[in-house]
Amino acid sequence: MQTHILGYPRIGSNRELKKACEQYWTGKIEANDLLEVGKTITQNNWKLQQEAGIDLIPCNDFSFYDQVLDMTLTVGAIPERYQEIAFKKSELNLYFAMARGFQKDGLDITAMEMTKWFDTNYHYIVPEFQKNQEFTLFSHKIIKEFISAKQAGINAKPVIIGLLTYLLLGKEKEEGFDKLDLAQNLLPVYIQILKELENHGAEYIQFDEPFLALDLTEKAREVYQFIYAEIRKQFPKLKFIVATYFEGLKDNLLLATSLPIDVLHIDLVRCPEQLDETLDIIPNNLSLSLGIVDGRNIWKNDFQKSLNSIKTAVEKIGSERIFIAPSCSLLHSPFDLDSEKNEEILSHEIKQWMAFAKQKVTEIVNLKKLASENPDYNALQALAENKKAIENRKISKLIHSQDVKNRVDVTTEDDAKRNSPFNIRKEIQHDVLKLPLFPTTTIGSFPQTKEVRNWRAKFKKGELNAEQYDTLLKQETERTIRWQEEIGIDVLVHGEFERNDMVEYFGEQLSGFAFTQNGWVQSYGSRCVKPPVIFGDVHRPQPMTVYWSEFAQSLTQKWVKGMLTGPVTILQWSFVRDDQPRSTTCKQIALAIRDEVNDLEKAGIRIIQIDEPAIREGLPLRKSDWQNYLKWAVEAFRISASGAEDATQIHTHMCYSEFNDIIQNIADMDADVITIECSRSQMELLNAFADFKYPNEIGPGVYDIHSPRVPSKEEMVKLLKKAQAVIPAQQLWVNPDCGLKTRHWDETEKALIAMVEASREASKEFALQIL
Description:
This protein is an alpha/beta fold. The chain has two domains: 2-67 and 112-395, TIM Barrel; 402-414 and 426-768, TIM Barrel (Alpha-Beta Barrel), CATH 3.20.20.210. Helix 12 (303-317) crosses helix 14.
């Protein structure tokens, strides 16, 4: 029996990678300094796994920004607009330009699109494909990292995004071809990579093929068979692991088990029932990797339950054909639970139920020991402690609230309906709000400067008292309100300077949530988030946002939006309890947000935004499971919003989502205004709304806030014209793609001034058209 890890967190134990990347981008450190940080993190990860006793340790799971972008650079799939940078700049600068855009040295180049990695909160950079595209081995990162691991004495297993998964993750940038047709062109580059790895002594290669757990076309199935047959033909001695995760193989089980590979990895956390199905048909020459430790959540593994599954597999195919692994890459787990030392933040009782990436490595090793014929004393001791923690969690009084359960039980369909349909609400809201054509707004947050973050840190350390902290935040809020008034934004926001994170901030004020000091996970690039932990029943003890919304509104005659995070996003971006259905937990959160909406109304707030950027992300990966999820997810949003009066305008925000397949469900949410990410796709996402004849109002983002480049007024006017071509002007709002928290003030000021000017120009042109 062997153990292996599919991938390990790459941000470092103290977010070293985030800090180094941001210093490099601002010119504070050189490329060699950044590369050295990456090398140190990688080698520390290898050493940690080696010392724990992992048999096969992944390499090439490290990335300075995104593993899909790494593969794009590796196979030379560099969009034409970056060719000048490719010739003039270093590989590292080209890499970051593709991720973030480039605006200096006389060049102004947009970033590549970014979207969610399956149903996680991790974002990847979307490959761009052209008809008859050629590929070439451009970056040798995979080979260099394997050589580095070998020199460090590591039994390394290179991790490569499978050829089919890489193509399916990408986007055709012109019509008239299928990206799968590029498989023949791409295969020689994969073969070249594998030849170099084999020449340097690689034994195992891991191909990540999560698309094998999704709905596939017949063509995709055929290409899978062809590609792996060709690879096996070229490399009869290499041992290939195909890793599937985030779902069960289901109707692709026969395909996956028939591929000419050596080890098949299956996710037994997401789909435990597939173990028996796989064991029934697995061929004698195929080993099975059991993804038995949850790579996406922070709860301790139930050793006894896992040992039962391992025993079932061993009895069927023998221990020599069993690999024990996490369900997926540990990229989605925080780094090390041992760094959580403050019991005032995370109590001992809750901490004992948890395991981060480092602890999950130990769990995998212990499961191997416990599944052997003669487990050692330390493993048996670990089993006893595990049983105690699992039982303690089941009986803990911290978890359950009968009042919360009762409120969920008495919720009715009427609680998910606004008083009047949208066409009536729209007229009432227009009379009350009196907004112009193409009203401008932002998504909520403004730059959280170093000073703002320092205030928060000093307040937490006790170096600022509550009154001092409050005064500083009020000054920053007022400055932001005045600046928005000055440039002419129509609907203002207060800037959210009091907030650390759009989910964590609310979790801190809701019962049933726990928090960590260092539970960071990567969201995209250098962006890390610290998800709260939902361990028990959720309710709102007191108002959460009214104080700051009421203060901001008191400063201006313009409308200020109340800013809330929606129930589905709070659920999706937290580590969620696994002892009850997610739908139940979501409804509990929805009722808490509903109470907040009602209190904001009472405080005179007439525009309330309930952000739901994660609603598309939460879709099950199999379409057959969509409707059940969408039913309770849409209902949760409607419960949170439907206590509002007709005159109160409810906004929602979604980003990095494809809407075509769920546009009816988006309409069913019945938000008065929806704002969406649109600029990187050049307004392509609006087509779904246009084809559907979406009746409510829409704010398509006119500039990309995830890139430091500042778009011109003309660029935004062009995007607004594209929007008007498919959506009636009377339905359009003008706004950025997302919140501005991570941007700098100089970029923000220039971009928003241009945005307001673009809105005015579009409004004038529309008025002239009518005349």
